[in-house]
Amino acid sequence: MYYVSTRNKKLKMMPAQAIAGGLAPDGGLMTPEVFPKLPPSALESMKDMSYQQRAVYVMKMFLEDYSVPELTAFAARAYGGGKFSSPDVAPVHTLDGSTHCLELWHGPTCAFKDMALQMLPHLLSAALTKNNESKTVCILVATSGDTGKAALEGFRDVDKTRILVFYPKDGVSEIQELQMNTQEGENVGVCSVAGNFDDAQTGVKRLFSDPALREELAGRGFFFSSANSINWGRVLPQVVYYISAYCDLLKSGAIQPGDKVNFCVPTGNFGNILAGYYAKMMGVPIHKLICASNANNVLTDFLRTGVYDRNRPFYNTMSPSMDILISSNLERLLFQFSEWDDQLVAGYMKELAETGRYEVSPGIRRKLEENFVAGCCDDEATARTIGKVWREKKYLIDPHTAVAFHVLEEYRRESGDDTPTVVVSTASPFKFCDNVLPAIGIQTVQPGTGAIDQLAQATGVEAPAPLAGLRSKTVRFHQWVEKEGMAGQVLEMLR
Ligand SMILES: *Cc1c(COP(=O)(O)O)cnc(C)c1O
Q1: Beta-carbon neighbour count of residue 268 at 10 Å?
Q2: DSSP 8-state symbol, 472
Q3: Residue closest by Cα to atom 3 of ligand 1
């Protein structure tokens, strides 16, 4: 099976090339040429597999140039060996007869990014060998918090890779900063940049396009790449947990073979929910995918009207990983729904770049309406939902997950749809103590890591070990640069 660019389907690559390259050379996203279908009894037979086995089963269908023993080893390294605090890796927690929660935050950084970023480095490292690449890949990341730490953990001590993370000095929380600066591993580097996230991001983009730097590093045996969420190697591992959740519901008897379920997904860049749609294409009986947004509700409007318009105010919310006005992975869905009309997709993306707006064809709009529903909520409703779910179900959720719970409740009230629904939970509440504590009625929040203990004490819920253990970790990184000093810092770190 080949992968093609969403902006030019004549541009074809093997899986390993698509994963090593990230973005297509024409700016499009590499996407499978055909979607494999699960054999009729697959969901039944996967029921009794471990998460790792399910991952191998699903990923093998998309990765012809990787062998089963290879994928098995990667799954063991990514999801086994105590890296995840739950042996089920992505367990389903049932709240009531028709509401379930897929917990994607049992990994080393306590957020759903681990599901993909624990796997991608292995896929990428192997891709380099398959492509006869002799250089070491240097992953550069600009982060507003979560992605940087998840990427550091994923790439830590993976062969033929180095990873350098730049974070804005003024743009991450105290806990996030501590998580990054205490990162272990021989191939990692962390540095803060004066300014905000845009400064760090612009700085990293400049490093990617600095010919002198690239040449100097090539001489030292390095080349740059990125690990952002448009890489196919990040989308594919996410398809696995949708299938896995369905299998778990079958196994627990919550549903019968063939029963439909909904998934309600807190959405930012559209990578998570897109993987849900791909699971549906493979044959998982999914009725609706419910796209939940915070006050940055560009996707809600888009899915309801067919008009994507980023010309609107940007809000900093208590669910920061969803503070996004351009959802890059939507491009892959448009490609699918336009029946591979690469020129149409390229046109929409050009309009988006030039005017910040595009309107999709009636055909695409019909397919959006068939498969997706959308809703949004502000910070006040988010906080209220955290409090309500805690009081009524004794279940503690983070603000991103709360957005999804709120949107689901509204959807059910308005539509009367009583299909069993899985809410996708994307972060541990302990990552967002500052907002979770007040939401459950505790107004005075302890500074720094003190808030983690405070939340554990107030609720009797155990804090995840990677967060609880932060205080006793050694701070390894103290570097600080001005934007102009980033290239020098890269050269320093890649000695
Ligand atoms: C990244 C992230 C999201 C958004 O996921 P997308 O794939 O970008 O839609 C939601 N919640 C959390 C906690 C995240 O880290």
Answers
A1: 25
A2: G
A3: 321
| Sign of the C-alpha dihedral computed for residues 362, 423, 91 and 42 taken in this order | negative
pLDDT, average across residues 288-302: 97
pLDDT above 90 (res 176): no
d(CA 243, CA 276): 9
Q: What is the pLDDT of residues 369-424, one digit of tens each?
A: 999 999 999 999 999 999 999 999 999 999 999 999 999 999 999 999 999 999 99
> Tokens 């029946």 correspond to what residue?
339
Q: What string of DSSP letters covers 196-251?
A: -HHHHHHHHHHHHT-HHHHHHHHHTTEEEE---TTSHHHHHHHHHHHHHHHHHHHH
**Cβ of residue 270 lying under 6 Å from some atom of ligand 1:** yes
- In this predicted structure, what is the pLDDT of residue 324? 87
How many angstroms separate the CA atoms of 471 and 179, rounded?
Answer: 10
Q: Is the CB of 268 under 6 A from ligand 1?
A: yes
The H-assigned helical ranges of 61-183 are: 68-79, 113-117, 120-130, 146-155, 174-181
For residue 351, what are the contacts with CB-CB under 8 A and spacing of at least 6?
A: 357, 358
Please work out whether the CB of residue 412 comes within 6 Å of at least one atom of ligand 1: no
Per-residue pLDDT for 466 more than 80?
A: yes
Q: Which of 302, 291, 293 has its CA nearest to residue 399?
A: 293
DSSP letter at 384? H
C-beta of 279 in contact with ligand 1 (< 6 A): no
Question: Which residue is associated with the tokens 């105590």?
Answer: 82
Distance 269 CA to ligand 1 centre (A): 7
Which run of H or of E encompasses 362? helix 362-371
Ligand 1 pocket test target in 102, 229, 269, 296 with most atoms within 8 Å of CB: 269
Other C-beta atoms lying within 10 Å of the C-beta of residue 376: 22
- How far is residue 470's CA from residue 379's CA, in Å, rounded to a whole number? 28
> What does the CA dihedral 19, 138, 151, 148 come to, rounded to 10 degrees?
-130
Active-site annotation, residues: 113
DSSP run (H or E) holding 141: strand 136-142
Give residue 273 CA to ligand 1 midpoint distance, Å. Answer: 9
Nearest CA to ligand 1 atom 8: 269
173 has a pLDDT exceeding 90: no
Report in angstroms the alpha-carbon separations of 285 from 111, 214, 251, 260.
26, 47, 15, 5
- Written as one letter, the residue type at 191 is C
Please work out whether the CB of residue 426 comes within 6 Å of at least one atom of ligand 1. Answer: yes
Residue 259, CA atoms < 13 Å, CB-side half-sphere: 18
Q: Which atom of ligand 1 is nearest to the CA of 324?
A: 8
Please give the pLDDT value at position 4: 97
Give the residue, by CA position, lying nearest to ligand 1 atom 15.
321
Are 210 and 224 contacting, i.e. CB atoms less than 8 angstroms apart?
A: no
Range list of H helices, 283-378: 298-305, 330-337, 342-355, 362-371
